[in-house]
Design brief:
Number of domains: 1
CATH class: Alpha Beta
Strand content: 5-15%
Radius of gyration: 20 Å
Order of helices and strands: HHHEEEHHEHHHEEEHEHEHEHHEH
Number of strands: 11
CATH architecture: Alpha-Beta Barrel
Structural class: alpha/beta
Length: 359
């Protein structure tokens, strides 16, 4: 497993994402790997064992080692000191593998949030972008290997609105208090745009890649026109900013967004989209539909990765690459993220088959 070496090459990754031709090898991208997955891989392969427990940058040295070992061309990092406090619900984690189980699983309350109306909006402790902590980005700029780049997210605009208001409450407020909804998009969008202005100043940062889930199985979570009018202008500002600094703007967005793709591609100007689920739109179909305009990323369905055997996973990877690899504009990865309940060996089989493809 993973006995074929991969040399990181972020310039080749960028060329691939720009669809400048079929890449020489398969490139990989993920939104993230859960910590339990990282720990399991580290135990199995001895990654990070040479880093002192007292090293103040142990976490980031480990991230570099892990990403290089797995074959990624980048390290994901962002700024500190910026947060949006909210209440989370908790339950037991039912992950079957004991070594990958966490103490609790957290999620956001869909019914309500800390901002229920104007009073809570005015009292909310909004983060100040002027207080952004760039310590990690500065350290990575000095210490990241030359063949890797930094990828950073900065634009969960609609998603942050749903987290702070509660999805159900937001749906009511769109009708009852539309000026409050406007204010939420304006405040959150402006904060993330100021953060983006900080991020693009770092030369080693090559990609803005964040998550903004907007859909469910059969369509957008709210009316398409509301998203286009209230959320997309901020995505466009960030995409334009990224492009002005010679960086790419990728969007992770779950759900059926077929009603929104034309606007995302031609108005917002995204360079690629991540998050594909077989029951909504297989990544191979997305490549055929949108591959002339944007990169498509991931798409090895999470449910499939959880339930399948190694032979099935390897076959699925080969079939996906046969369709998506030609001409560039595809990175191999999961359909969403490498969650702690995905068997580690299944994830590694996906990565290993990517190394063996046309090797």
């Amino acid at each position: 497993m993973l006995d074929i070496s991969v040399q990181p090459d972020y310039e080749a990754l960028l060329s691939n994402l720009k669809r400048e031709g079929t890449p020489k090898r398969v490139h990989y991208m993920e939104l993230f790997l859960d910590g339990e997955i990282k720990s399991a891989i580290a135990r199995q392969f001895g990654i990070g064992s040479d880093i002192s427990e007292d090293d103040p940058y142990r976490h980031w040295k480990f991230e570099i080692q892990l990403q290089r070992f797995l074959g990624y061309d980048y390290v994901a990092a962002g700024i500190g000191g910026i947060g949006f406090p909210r209440d989370l619900l908790v339950s037991e984690d039912t992950t079957q593998e004991d070594a990958q189980r966490r103490h609790q699983r957290h999620w956001t309350d869909e019914h309500t949030g800390p901002i229920k109306g104007w009073e809570q909006f005015e009292a909310y402790p909004w983060p100040d972008p002027a207080k952004a902590d760039t310590t990690i980005l500065e350290w990575l700029t000095r210490n990241l290997p030359e063949d890797m780049c930094i990828v950073s997210g900065c634009h969960s605009i609609f998603e942050q609105v749903t987290w702070l208001m509660g999805y159900e409450n937001l749906c009511y407020q769109i009708h009852d208090t539309p000026d409050l909804v406007d204010a939420m998009f304006e405040r959150i969008g402006s904060i993330f745009h100021e953060i983006a202005k900080v991020l693009v100043q770092f030369d080693r940062l090559a990609i803005l890649f964040g998550g903004d889930d907007m859909g469910f199985k059969t369509g957008p979570m709210i009316g398409s026109q509301i998203l286009i009018e209230k959320s997309f202008p901020w995505h466009k500002k960030n995409a334009d900013l990224a492009h002005a600094h010679n960086k790419l703007y990728l969007l992770h967005a779950c759900g059926d967004l077929s009603e929104l793709m034309e606007s995302l591609i031609h108005d917002v100007g995204i360079d690629g989209r991540h998050s594909f689920e077989d029951t909504i739109e297989p990544v191979t179909l997305a490549k055929q539909r949108y591959g002339e305009h944007i990169a498509v990323i991931g798409g090895i369905d999470v449910d499939f990765l959880c339930r399948s055997h190694e032979v099935q996973i390897r076959q699925r990877v080969r079939e996906t690459l046969d369709i998506c690899q030609p001409g560039g504009g595809y990175c191999l990865g999961s359909g969403n993220s490498v969650a702690n309940y995905i068997p580690v060996e299944n994830y590694l089989a996906m990565m290993d088959e990517g190394r063996r493809y046309a090797a």
